[in-house]
Amino acid sequence: MSKTSHPVPSRLAAPHWEKRGNTIWVSCGSCEGWFPVEEDLIVAATIELRCPHCGKAFTPDAAARIIEP
Asked: Can you say whether the dihedral through the CA atoms of 40, 45, 51, 55 is positive or negative?
């Protein structure tokens, strides 16, 4: 009898459809954790964002993904 393993989805790597609301979601370029940000922070390319999951700072152009409403 073989055991079937089912991967447990990570709360950090939630799929696109779970990102709701009138905000922008950013995925960290390091740990790929998702967090919401204001639009003016994304537009200002010189501002560094700090990931609340791993603590790494990065500019919006270094994000793994950005989902806009």
From this structure: negative
Taking a C-beta distance cutoff of 8 angstroms, is the pair 16, 27 a contact?
A: no
Residue 26's CB is within 10 A of a number of other CB atoms, namely 23
| Cβ(69)–Cβ(61) below 8 Å | no
Q: How many CA atoms lie within 13 A of 38 on its CB side?
A: 5
Q: How far is CA 29 from CA 43, 53, 60, in A?
A: 17, 12, 9
Predicted TM-score (pTM) of the model is 0.69
pLDDT of 65 > 80? The answer is yes
